[in-house]
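The protein record filed below.
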Amino acid sequence: MKKYRTFLFFCISAFILAGCGKKERTDNAGESVWRMNSCFTETGILYKKSETNGKLKYYDYESKEYLTLCAKANCRHDSSECMSVYLYQNIDFIGKLGDKWYYRVMKTDESEGAFYSCDLDGGNEKEVGPFSHGNGKAIGTVNLFYDNVCVLETEDDYFDETTGEWTGTGSGIYRFHFDTGEAEVLCEEKEYMRPAYSVYGKYDNKLLYTEWDGKKNLLKQMDLGTKKSAVILDNINIITGAVQGNILLCSASEGERFKLIIVNLETGKQEHIWTKGVASDYFWDEELKVFIIYGEESAVTKDGYARQFFELYQYMEDGVCRLLRTGDTAKCFIPYVRMEDQLIGRDSEKGELARMNMQDFISGSADWEILEE
């Protein structure tokens, strides 16, 4: 039986929080996920470091050190001759499988785009196979790297040949095989004035995603072995979602009402919590469960920086959602993963990775430490 609890929220705002839950060190570092311009692996985070000459940096949880994806001796990492800078400028996503990085180099006048691989230090680059579709940017969508494949939602814009006007977006879901260099269609391409699909994750060889039917986003589950799919939340419009371990979280609308839906993918148990707006951007593990309420209120700082206000809530085991604090994105700590009693995330103002004690985060402290190189 579905369980409903009513919880009233105040204002809603636009904010970005990427939660991965607790990460434990294992010998199986064979899977990774790309989302929010970062690659999350079992052993660290690769992220786009924004500066004059942006580059890709990998932070290792165990050594607490950075790795620049460049194998050149004495490289200054300040031009496109550097592999790390080149990747920053020319790829739209990247993932780690075993001792290789796999990524798609975007289209150019000379190339339609292709998957490539390189060693963990950025050396020994090789083309894996052509792939012309653009990376998906639907809300909440992720790229999954596992078992020598990449599952992703794609988006390609279409334009009128005569007027040059944009006519719509074609999107599909593909599984690219790195051993053969071939792309397999999981969901046929559809063309709408918006993305037709969004990939939220997988659990027990089941892909969780949404598909637009022309009126609403239906939450579906696909067996990745047989490719058979079924709707798992009937007649509910899904706005965004995420798979966190064995938990599926999604925000949905029914008419003019919104709710947060929590599904245990192992037991099938559901909990529905009514909200006054869209809940999203979840950090969810056995000890800390938080989410954001989106809204429209924002402001601009004196230097032109857009501040977006948010309310951060903690879900308690009795179903009560406790307001932790309000804030804005001009300066805040955005948690990504938990390592024991420490949260690793990003400083929103500087765009740098940072570390913070979990209890300090819960208590509302603004005391976090930038992870220096």
Observations:
- The longest helix spans residues 83-90.
- Residues 210 and 219 are 4 Å apart (CA to CA).
